[in-house]
UniProtKB/TrEMBL annotation:
Sorted UniProt keywords: Ligase, Phosphopantetheine, Phosphoprotein
Pathway: Siderophore biosynthesis; mycobactin biosynthesis
Organism: Kutzneria chonburiensis
UniProt-listed SUPFAM superfamilies: Acetyl-CoA synthetase-like, ACP-like, CoA-dependent acyltransferases
Pfam families xrefs: AMP-binding, AMP-binding_C, Condensation, PP-binding
Listed name of the protein: Phenyloxazoline synthase MbtB
Gene3D superfamilies, per database record: 3.30.300.30, 3.40.50.980, ACP-like (1.10.1200.10), alpha/beta hydrolase (3.40.50.1820), Chloramphenicol acetyltransferase-like domain (3.30.559.10), Luciferase, Domain 3 (2.30.38.10), Nonribosomal peptide synthetase, condensation domain (3.30.559.30)
Obligatory cofactor(s): pantetheine 4'-phosphate
Record InterPro entries: AA_adenyl_dom, AB_hydrolase_fold, ACP-like_sf, AMP-bd_C, AMP-bd_C_sf, AMP-binding_CS, AMP-dep_synth/lig_dom, CAT-like_dom_sf
Domain Carrier: 684-758, 1740-1815
């Protein structure tokens, strides 16, 4: 038994029908039912519950929760089936217990004196299940306790009668006509009716009957007699049917043999069946060479026999077939099939499926399989026609679908795997198909209820033929989406004259939903194995059911359960039941769940024994076009299965199969040692301790590598392996218990446990007691680290600075005594030195011994009207709440009293955090002030001051082991410490940000409930509130692992009065939130463990950690950790502030903080406040986040199950609904082939121009004629569907002719760039498996071609070919083209696109823009570029004309513009850079406008913000359209009509999806993102996606997948984007288009768009190459349109962007370099920028100013010297040293050198250049530097001494 499984995790009644899935959102509701039983003691009810749960689940170790609400204790009871109930050992139960909880408290039994009730969660159990539980519990309680557990009756009489007889009322008269008799009758009645169609062969019933008679007479002459056996060894076809009919008419048996079987297997079958002869064809004789006699069907001697009727009577018990199935011994098992059951199943299927004489059926199953009776025979028996496809069609879902449609099939039978793939395809509404029968493996997914045909599940076995059927389509239409996700497809109800039973081991019916074994009885059921050695008696038992006329039951071996309506559902096999850690597990149940997941083609689960331990391994064969994601499969199984049923390992790949197509489980490989696919990102060990622990895990689990955040159990661990891990850890000296590993299940978590245990066992630290230093009391002393950070942050050097760190508090007192308050305030000022503190310019603090006053301001508004008084108070609030107080003048605090009308007084406290921390405010300042006011008497004197404390702390830490250990801990964590939450932000807000507040409160009752839940979950109050905050941050942040700033008041116990002091004792804990998997409770516990570990190392101040982090980050100006959680819980205030009156307002502000979450408890009420910089975040985002926070908090209060939930959907419902509307793009698309559309236009308008080239015009008639010529010749040369023919040409009319010629041939075209290097072209020809290339004369003769490639010239090699139309050889789902795009591995990817996807694209654009025959397009894109797709297909299929410019090696904007004017081009699709060259050319030359242009589609690259308006100026009638989409989404998949350019835009919005395209913004776990949050753009479409990558299944699997939850096939673009509130998408580029500069994540497009707004800028591109110092620097390349200076651009940017976004390097170019596809060549520009960086490293002798600056660098950094290019931060600089450097340079040079300049210009050379660049102060600084250098060297030395 696995001790890790608790009562909360144990699944009870698994699989019972439920109202909806677990974890459903919304309010939690419950169903309560009374149990009909006499009131009894709790122990008896526990006993009955144990019996009931054992009978439901079979578990031998039942665990319950017992106690009272909110306090449940685990109760474990061992139970055996044969054990008397009286012998169950019920342990002692908790006192006063009245509650039994089951399955995570979703099911409760309450016992009171009034009675027994059963309560269940409505989102887990439906009402029928709850009533059944209550009924069965009552039956157990009423039964005798002397009975054994297995004999206690559960079902009442009504339930028993329903199961045995009610659902088995199937008796009906038998149709007496056998199959072969029906065929003979139809041949007499309708001899000319078609019976079989196989390729070109069409056989009538008359012919079939005649041939069967001839074959029968021939076989009789060869010795076949009644009861004899003849082998039938054919592929599917007429010969097999003829031979089988002949055998039936002789009263003989047909032995079915598949010619695909190995010869040895066939030899065994022939001998085992003792055949008289084998009928086969020429070519197969060798397969059956050991047969006694061989009859060759195609030699036709048998055909000479008489065809008069042969009809020897048979009975229902006579054997018609012998079919072989796999046997458990490894030897094939021969099953005898009889005429009676075959007759019954045929007539049952005819009735069930509505098969008649007009039906068209199929034969698709193996010819050696007994399914022949289910597949073609019912159709023939009804007089319908059976159609047989070729083998390629049978094997291909796409081809089979097209064949079913073309043959107008009405009824078909398919094996499960093929059926499940077919019904997910698109089917026309008028599909002839009426029923699709499914047989073979279990059906594990639901067909859509919207299919135009019914899917019928046919269940049976070789021994009993067809048992039951289920119309899955009809059932699916009755179920909602959640039920379809919860339930597995059933096998239905028994057919006529068959009865089914689900029995337990005692052959008793089981309750609805409970697992049992399926038994079958029927009229012709009897032992059916050919020989007793095959185990016949084991499968057949005597029937115990009264009223069943059949004496024998067939034991199917299938594990099944009833639905409430009597439908039977199969979940697995009894022989697949295994024991795992003491639990019974049905492997089939796991397989069914896995198989139901999107992207799973088939699956198997094995229980493998490794090192004596059993573990489950899942094998998944993925859908190659969109494979399953293992981590998503894991998540579903975690949600639906208990731990012991979850596979420990997963193996993905093709599964081996047996000869009859079933999974060959014996050949399934052992799982590989590689790390599995997990929800958690891989993180390497970060220190030696983690490395040792990881190595132990790796060894025990047998894996190559383990990440420190990986979950032990997700890696395949279990309780047995956990014991081995714990033993190994102890051997290495780590003190770890087994429970530690079960709760702390990652390497990082175990490492924390080890460290905590060691600290707990160490001796406590003792500290010396402080004494007061009266002599130094009023001497300056240093600011501590926290004060330094706040002091520096008050200035504007740091981002989010220029803010005074203070809290503003406002109260209203009804009758305050102002003078008494003044006396109290004065006493407080002289009691606490820090209230009299100022900060000197040197960065030291000074306590003033005397004050100029008390700093208290009193304003009397009592004589004003209430309205006027309130207005003035509001003005005071606005000033005080956001005021930055000068730190070098007293008072830093601002205390005001406002006397109001009516005797009221408003108290205003503006408290500066340089003076005090939050703890001091609530624990000292306010309580002391209240005491002083109320008593009007002095308080006990303080013996020490804050200065004493700081000096004492410094002395203690100087030689402290704890300090050194903490320092090493934090410095060791820095390299892997996650960044702060990367929330969406406004980089350049319209207004200066100021703090705003959102607040929420929990009532005392709800706060107590949450506290109790947190205690149950093992976390503190602060931790649970922080954990909820983390869930919200993770939903909106770009990074899922992050660090939160958690300040604490850290007061070392150096004196008994330390807690009575005022001061800034703040220490910053940087708490890493790293666990992203598991449940909420587990994630919360992980945060707590990390926080405790951090607190144990708090002696190294967090500010020092942040400085080191900034230094390593190159001197970031951006706050490293601006998201703060400030919790004052656990420290109740000595006096409540309510003594000041009611709180009327409050807000805080802190420099370098963007969001501060503050937590306090006041009078039992939990107060939560978010203070945030308002305009720094997108509109509405903080409100959405805050609503999500409070909503999740409420769920955790109300719903205990939420704590065990893995994921929360925190996206606002309105946002989800809006995006569903945007994505509602479904549109009907004609099911066409592209060349056929053009052919139709050619017939209607043959003379209309199709292609207008510079040298000739090609009409539609000529295009069609030449396409037919090319197509015919190519087809003769072997062109075929889904093969490729290459096009290697320069731009010209021949390209269009080649495209449509290749499509006419049936192949897809592969366009290659004729100017590409020869080696590249040859490599692509080889990869594309090209046998034929179409080209032009000059190219054919220019270069050598690979061996084996035939090169044909379009205008030379097809002139003499017949040009008459060709019938199409392909279907719309076959390839139209493959285009190669660049690949990250260096090998291009061939994107495969079919006709249907191309049609979806062009029909949408043509309809959207109204494109028709009068339109003209122009093709400026290369044929090898996907931008050409609309040109090639869109214009021709609309009947318009495509204009082709002359081929050119470089852009020719004048030529293109001339063509637009000359041919009146109306639509043009091109990349922005190309159009920009045209616009610029017209602007500079004054060319004529492009009046004809109606639509300009800009796609394929970023659109400059200025381009649309410039384009409209030269093309006055144009609509400018922004579009895009990867090649994999067919050229354009998203669209945005560009109107007026919004001045706040950073880039042109990407837009909304086109028809049949759906865009999703997903996180790395494929979960949707809310508005504004960055995620990967993923595109889904049922028809508008590429099929994948040519011959590259690995990259296909990496980019195409099924979306979790919906199963939608999608493509991962790799581009980042975000949803905007207006329903559009904003594209953010690829992740590599974002860089880090000085700690900022910089989007280069934002800088580019701002540059483009400059009136003298034509184009701009920004790159960020790595600098010589290792960081990155921005370089801007600008193409000016007129006279332009770099300084002007710098000033322009500085006015509009924050400084970190202003490039230090701006260069002017004449033009931007372009790639072959006419996109901006960013790689070339990056290389250019890097070259300049290298050149700039050493540029000669230093100037005097550079020498002075370098000297002071060395002085501050305590180095002997530094170079001009030495980076300040890389040599140990930080913000504090930067402050000193700025101050010293300001003093020496006589000019203001700001801290921001020091922190951004990080080398002496850069800083000197910045100083010189200042026009007003630069000359003075230069002159001072020259003067200094002329003086003696002692000047700088004196500065050093000073």
């Amino acid at each position: 038994m696995d001790d890790s499984v608790s009562w909360e995790q144990q699944t009870v009644g698994a699989g019972l029908p439920r109202a909806r899935r677990r974890g459903a959102t919304g309010a939690v509701s419950y169903r309560t039912v009374s149990v009909r039983a006499a009131t009894t003691g709790l122990a008896r009810v526990v006993e009955a519950a144990v019996v009931l749960l054992h009978r439901y689940t079979g578990e031998t170790d039942v665990v319950l929760g017992c106690g009272r609400d909110g306090a449940l204790t685990p109760v474990r009871v061992a139970v055996r089936a044969d054990q008397p109930v009286t012998e169950l050992e019920i342990p002692a139960l908790p006192e006063d217990a009245d509650l039994i909880a089951v399955q995570g408290d979703t099911l409760r039994i309450t016992v009171t004196v009034v009675g027994i009730t059963l309560t269940a969660r409505a989102d887990v159990f439906d009402s029928a299940a709850v009533r059944m539980y209550a009924r069965h519990l009552g039956n157990v309680l009423a039964a005798s306790r002397e009975a054994t557990v297995e004999t206690v009756p559960l079902l009442d009489e009504a339930e028993t009668e329903l199961a045995l007889n009610g659902w088995n009322d199937t008796a009906a008269p038998l149709d007496q006509e056998f199959f072969h008799e029906a065929v003979a009758r139809i041949a007499q009645e309708r001899p000319d009716a078609t019976a079989i169609v196989h390729g070109d062969q069409r056989v009538t019933f008359g012919q079939l009957d005649s041939w069967a008679n001839s074959m029968a007479r021939y076989l009789a002459a060869e010795g076949l007699t009644v009861g004899g056996r003849v082998g039938v060894c054919f592929e599917r076809g007429v010969a097999s049917v003829v031979t089988q009919l002949a055998a039936f008419r002789l009263g003989a048996t047909a032995v079915l043999l598949d010619p695909e079987y190995p010869r040895d297997r066939l030899t065994y079958m022939l001998a085992d069946a003792e055949v008289v002869a084998v009928v086969t064809r020429t070519g197969l004789e060798d397969k059956v060479a050991n047969a006694p006699k061989t009859v060759l069907y195609d030699v036709a001697r048998w055909a000479n026999a008489a065809d008069t009727a042969v009809s020897i009577p048979v009975t229902g018990d006579d054997v018609c077939h012998i079919a072989y199935t796999s046997g458990s011994t490894g030897v094939p098992k021969a099953v005898t099939l009889r005429h009676g059951p075959m007759r019954s199943l045929i007539h049952a299927l005819i009735d069930e499926c509505g098969i008649d004489g007009d039906s068209r059926g199929t034969w698709l199953s193996s010819p050696g399989f007994g399914l022949v009776e289910v597949d073609p025979f019912p159709v023939l028996a009804a007089g319908g026609a059976v159609h047989i496809p070729d083998e390629e069609t049978v094997a291909s879902p796409t081809r089979l679908r097209e064949w079913l449609l073309s043959e107008q099939i009405t009824h078909s039978l398919l094996l499960t795997a093929m059926a499940e793939r077919l019904w997910t395809m698109d089917w026309p509404a008028d599909t002839p198909l009426r029923t699709m029968r499914v047989a073979g493996e279990r059906v594990r997914s639901w067909p859509s209820g919207a299919l135009p045909f019914d899917v019928i599940n046919v269940y049976g076995a070789a021994e009993v033929a067809v048992v039951s059927t289920a119309n899955l389509s009809a059932i699916a239409r009755r179920l909602d989406g959640e039920q379809l996700a919860e339930l597995l497809p059933p096998v239905g109800k028994p057919i006529t004259n068959v009865r089914t039973y689900v029995f337990d081991s005692k052959l008793r019916p089981v309750p609805v939903g409970v697992l049992g074994e399926l038994y079958v009885s029927g009229a012709y059921l009897q032992p059916s194995y050919l020989k007793a050695r095959n185990g016949g008696p084991l499968k057949f038992v005597y029937n115990p059911v009264d009223g069943d006329p059949n004496a024998i039951l067939y034991r199917t071996g299938d594990v099944a359960r009833y639905w409430p309506d009597g439908q039977v559902e199969i979940v697995g096999r009894t022989d697949s039941e295994v024991k795992v850690r003491g639990y019974r597990v049905h492997l089939g149940e796991i397989e069914s769940l896995i198989a139901a997941q999107p992207g799973v083609r088939q699956t198997a689960v094995l229980a493998r024994e490794d090192d004596g331990e059993v573990r489950l391994v899942a094998y998944i064969e993925p859908d190659p076009g969109a494979p399953a994601q293992v981590r998503e499969v894991r998540r579903v199984l975690r949600d639906k299965l208990p731990k012991y049923m979850r596979p420990a390992a997963y193996v993905v790949g093709d599964l081996p199969t047996t000869a009859n197509g079933k999974i060959d489980r014996d050949k399934l490989p052992a799982p590989p040692p590689s790390r599995p696919e997990l929800d958690t990102a891989f993180v390497e060990p970060r220190d030696e301790q983690e490395r040792v622990i990881a190595e132990i895990w790796r060894s025990v689990l047998g894996l190559d590598e383990i990440g420190v955040l990986d979950d032990f159990f997700e890696l395949g661990g279990d309780s047995l392996r956990a014991v081995r891990v714990v033993d190994a850890l102890r051997d290495n000296g780590f003190q770890v218990e087994l429970n530690d590993l079960l709760s702390a299940s990652s390497v990082a978590a175990v490492s924390r446990v080890v460290e905590r245990t060691a600290l707990e066992r160490s001796a406590p630290t003792t500290y010396p007691v402080l004494t007061h230093d009266a002599a130094s009391r009023f001497e300056p002393h240093p600011l501590n680290q926290s004060q330094q950070a706040l002091w520096i942050g008050r200035g504007d050097a740091m981002d989010f600075g220029d803010v005074g760190c203070h809290g503003y508090f406002e109260y209203e007192h009804p009758n305050l005594d102002v003078e008494r308050f003044r006396r109290a305030w004065q006493a407080l000022l002289y009691r606490h030195d820090q209230l009299r503190m100022i900060v000197l310019p040197t960065g030291e603090q000074l306590v003033l011994s005397e004050l100029p006053g008390d700093g208290l301001t009193v304003v009397d508004l009592s004589g004003h009207t209430p309205e006027e008084a309130e207005r003035l108070v509001t003005e005071t609030r606005e000033f005080m709440s956001h005021h930055v107080t000068p730190s070098d003048t007293w008072p830093l605090n601002d205390i005001r009293l406002t006397r109001l009308p009516g005797g009221r007084t408003r108290l205003h406290f503006g408290l500066d955090m340089l003076v005090t921390d939050a703890w001091s405010i609530y624990q000292v300042i306010f309580p002391d002030l209240i005491d002083l006011y109320e008593t009007d008497a002095p308080l006990a004197p303080l013996e020490i001051t804050f200065r004493d404390y700081e000096a004492g702390k410094a002395a203690v830490q100087a030689d402290s082991v704890e300090y050194e250990r903490a320092k090493q801990y934090w410095l060791g964590r820095l390299p892997t410490l996650p960044a702060a939450p990367d929330l969406p932000m406004v980089h350049n807000p319209r207004t200066k940000p100021k703090f705003d507040r959102r607040e929420h409160a929990l009532s005392p009752q709800r706060w107590q409930q949450l506290t109790a839940r947190a205690k149950e979950g093992g976390v503190t109050q602060s931790t649970v509130l922080m954990a909820v905050f983390a869930e919200v941050l993770r939903t909106w942040a770009k990074n899922e692992r992050f660090t939160v700033n958690f300040p604490i008041s850290d007061r070392m116990p150096l004196h008994p009065q330390v807690d009575q002091l005022i001061g800034d004792f703040t220490n910053t804990m940087l708490v890493a939130v790293e666990k992203v998997d598991g449940t909420f409770a587990e994630r919360a516990r992980d945060i707590q463990e990390q926080l405790w570990r951090d607190l144990a190392h708090r002696h190294y101040n967090g500010v020092d950690v942040l400085r080191e982090l900034a230094r390593r980050d190159g001197g970031s100006l951006r706050p490293a950790m601006p998201i703060v959680v400030t919790s004052l819980l656990g420290h109740p205030a000595r006096r409540q502030t309510s003594s000041f009156g009611a709180e009327t307002y409050g807000i805080s502000q802190t420099p370098q903080v963007t969001l501060d979450f503050q937590i306090r408890e006041i009078a039992g009420v939990l107060h939560m406040k978010w203070d945030f910089l308002d305009s720094l975040f997108p509109d509405g985002m903080i409100d959405a986040m805050f609503d999500a926070y409070t909503g999740l908090l409420d769920r955790l209060v109300d719903d205990p199950v939420a704590w065990r939930q893995e994921r929360f959907d925190l996206i606002p419902p309105a946002q989800r609904e809006q995006w569903e509307r945007v994505n509602d793009t479904a549109t009907e698309v004609p099911y066409v082939l592209m060349h056929e559309v053009v052919a139709e236009i050619a017939v209607k308008n043959p003379d209309a121009p199709a292609v207008i080239a510079t040298d000739r015009t090609v009409s539609y008639g000529e295009l069609h004629s030449r396409a037919n010529q090319i197509g015919r010749r190519l087809r003769e040369l072997g062109a075929r569907p889904n093969a490729l023919v290459a096009i290697v040409m320069d731009r010209g009319w021949e390209q269009l002719v080649a495209v449509y010629g290749i499509l006419t041939a049936g192949s897809g075209y592969l366009p290659l760039d004729a100017t590409a290097p020869m080696d590249r072209r040859h490599a692509l020809l080889e990869n594309g498996e090209i046998e034929i290339v179409l080209t032009q004369r000059h190219i054919a003769e220019r270069d050598p071609w690979p061996d084996g490639v035939r090169v044909l010239v379009v205008d030379r090699d097809f002139d003499d070919v017949d040009d008459s139309p060709l019938p199409s050889a392909q279907e719309p789902t076959d390839l139209a083209y493959v285009i190669y795009t660049s690949g990250s591995t260096g090998m291009p990817k061939g994107v495969m696109v079919d006709h249907r996807a191309a049609a979806n694209h062009v029909y949408d654009i043509n309809k959207r823009f109204g494109i028709g025959p009068s339109d003209r397009g122009i093709m400026t894109a290369g044929l090898h570029f996907d931008m050409s797709i609309y040109d090639v297909f869109g214009i021709p299929t609309a009947g318009g004309a495509l204009v082709l410019p002359a081929p050119s090696s470089s852009p020719d904007p004048d030529h293109w513009a001339d063509l637009v004017r000359e041919h009146k081009v109306t639509i043009w699709g091109a990349v922005p850079a190309l159009i920009e060259t045209v616009v610029t050319r017209i602007e500079t030359t004054g060319g004529a406008p492009l009046d004809s242009l109606r639509y300009q589609v800009l796609a394929g690259d970023w659109i400059p913000l200025t381009l649309p308006d410039r384009l409209r100026a030269v093309a006055p009638n144009v609509a400018v359209i922004g579009s895009g989409g990867p090649t994999e989404t067919i050229n354009w998949s998203i669209i945005f009509e560009i109107g007026e350019i919004d001045k706040d835009w950073v880039s042109i919005p990407y837009g909304r999806p086109l028809n049949n395209q759906r865009y999703h913004i997903l996180d790395e776990h494929r979960r949707p993102r809310p508005q504004w949050a960055t995620g990967e753009m993923v595109v889904g479409s049922p028809i508008g996606l590429a099929q994948g990558y040519w011959r590259d299944p690995e990259r296909t699997a990496a980019k195409f997948f099924r979306l979790p939850g919906t199963g939608e096939r999608v493509y991962a673009t790799g581009d980042l984007g975000r949803l905007l509130p207006d329903g559009n998408i904003e594209i953010l580029g690829r992740d590599d288009f974002q860089v880090k500069i000085n700690g900022y994540r910089v989007e280069l497009g934002e800088i580019e768009s701002t540059l483009a707004r400059h009136p003298a800028v034509d184009a701009a591109v920004v790159v960020a190459p790595a600098s010589a110092g290792g960081g990155r620097r921005l370089t801007a390349f600008v193409v000016p349109s007129s006279e332009l200076e770099v300084a002007d651009l710098t000033a322009f940017l500085s006015e509009r962007l924050p400084s970190y976004l202003v490039p230090a390097d701006i260069r002017l170019l004449d033009e931007l370099p372009l790639t072959r596809n006419v996109k901006v060549d960013r790689l070339a520009l990056t290389a250019l920028a890097e070259r300049h960086e290298v050149d700039a490293v050493d540029d000669g002798e230093a100037t005097p100013l550079e020498q002075v600056v370098a000297e002071f660098y060395a002085l501050v950094l305590e180095l002997e010297e530094v170079g001009l290019d030495s980076n300040f931060f890389q040599f140990g600089g930080d913000s504090l040293r930067g402050t000193r450097l700025a101050g010293q340079l300001t003093e020496v040079l006589g000019v203001d050198v700001g801290l921001r300049a020091v922190l951004t210009r990080t080398t002496p050379r850069e800083l000197s250049a910045a100083i010189v660049a200042e026009p007003e102060t630069g000359p003075l600084a230069t002159a001072m530097a020259v003067a200094l250098m002329e003086l003696s060297d002692g000047v700088l030395a004196d500065s050093d001494a000073a």
